[in-house]
Amino acid sequence: MARNLQQHILDVASELFYSQGIKTTGVDAIVKAAGTTKMSLYKYFPSKDDLVVAHLNKSRAKLQGIIEAELAQATDDPQRKLLAVFDVFERLQASPAFRGCPFINASAEFAEIGSPVQQAAAEFSEGFRRLLATLAAEAGVRDPDNLSKHLSMLIAGALVREQMQRGSAPMRAAREAAEILIGHACAQARAAEPA
Amino acid sequence: MARNLQQHILDVASELFYSQGIKTTGVDAIVKAAGTTKMSLYKYFPSKDDLVVAHLNKSRAKLQGIIEAELAQATDDPQRKLLAVFDVFERLQASPAFRGCPFINASAEFAEIGSPVQQAAAEFSEGFRRLLATLAAEAGVRDPDNLSKHLSMLIAGALVREQMQRGSAPMRAAREAAEILIGHACAQARAAEPA
DNA sequence: TTTTCAGAACAGACCGGTCAGTCTGTTGCA
DNA sequence: TGCAACAGACTGACCGGTCTGTTCTGAAAA
C-alpha cells in the first residue's frame, strides 16, 4: 500500500462522510471499511477533524475537475458555458448516490463559527461564485458579480431541494431560471452600451 | 409547570437544536438547560427522535406565523406579496442567531432516506413551494408552479449562502433576481393573453 | 543468495468521556 | 392520597484517541 494507503483511507472516509453524514460516521467504521487499523489512520490524519478537512478538499478538487472537463468540451459561447455548469450538477443529482452538496452538509453539521470546516465551506462557496463571475464576465454581462450570486444561489437551492425532495429534478428548473437571468443581464449590457 | 413543562422542554430543545446542531446536542444538555429531569423529558417525548420531529413542527409553525403576519400587512399587490417573503427571510438572516434553515440543516444531519426527519423536511419544502405557487397564481403569472420553484430555490440558496458566508447578505440579491423572474413571468402572461 | 534489520502496517485491548435511555426513590403540591 | 416533577445513579453502547505488541516486506549487508 505504501503511500497509497493514505489516499485509500481518504477515499473510503470521504465516501462514508458523504453518504452517511460526518458526525454519524465513526472512526472505527472508516477503519473497518478501509480494511486498515486505527494506528494507520491516525498516522496520516492526526485527528478526525483533519480527515474531515481532507475530505472537503478532496470534494472540492473532484468537483473542480468535473466542471473544468465539462467547460473544456463546451462550445466557446460564454453563455453556454454558464449553462453547462447547471448541466454538470443535473448529472450529479441524477446519481442514486447523490446526497446533496458536501459543503452545505458539512456546514450544517458543524455549527461552530470559525471552525476549519466552516472555513473550508466558506472558501468553496466563494470560489465557486467567483468561477461563475468569471464566466459571466466573459459573457459580457453588465454586472458579473451580481449575476454570479444569482446563479450560485439557484444552484445551491436546487441542490438542497433535490436533497429534501428526491426526484423533483429541480436543476432543470434552475437552469431555466438561469437562462432568464442571463438573458436579462445580457440585454441590460446591450442597452447600456449600444453600438 | 404542569402542561407548560412539555412546551418549555420543546422550546429549549428547539433553540439548542437550531443553534448547535441536532446530533451535537445531547439529551442531558437539553435537560440541564431546561432545568428539568430526564424522566420528565422522556415522559413527554418518548425518544430524542420524537423531540427532533416536534422541533421541526414547531419551526414550521413559527415560520408560517411570521410569513402570514408579513403577508397580512403587505399591500394587496400579489407581486409585492411574493417579494415580501424575501423580506421576511432577509430580516431573519440579519439576526445574529441565524444559523441557516432548520429543515435544510436537519436534512443534512439525518441522511437516512425515509426517516421521519427527512419526511418532515420534504413536507416543509413542498408546502413552502406551494405557498409561493399560490401567491404566484394570484399574481396571474403564466406558470405559477414553475415560478414558485425558481423563487423557492433562490431563497434556499440565499439561506445556505448566508450560513456558509456570514455577512454576505445574499437575500437582497436573491430578491433582485426574483424581481426579474417575476417580471419575466408576468410579461409572458401578458404576451400569451393580450387584451 | 541468503541474512538481517528497519519501517510500515496489522491486531486488538484499552482509556475516559459521552451517548440515549431506564430505574429507584424523594419531594411538593392539590 | 395521588400525581407530577425532581434527583441522580445506572446501563450498555459507542465515541475519538492511545498503547503494546506482532507480522509483513523490501532493501541493504554479508
From TrEMBL, chains A, B:
Entries under InterPro entries matching the protein: Homeodomain-like_sf, HTH_TetR, Tet_transcr_reg_TetR-rel_C_sf, TetR_C
Gene3D superfamilies attached to this UniProt entry: Tetracycline Repressor, domain 2
Record PROSITE patterns: HTH_TETR_2 (PS50977)
Residue ranges the UniProt entry marks as DNA-binding: 26-45
Transcription found in the keyword field: yes
Key words, A-Z: DNA-binding, Transcription, Transcription regulation
Domain HTH tetR-type: 3-63
Keyword field contains Ribosomal protein: no
Pfam family, one: TetR_C_13
Protein name per the record: TetR/AcrR family transcriptional regulator
Lineage: Bacteria, Pseudomonadati, Pseudomonadota, Gammaproteobacteria, Methylococcales
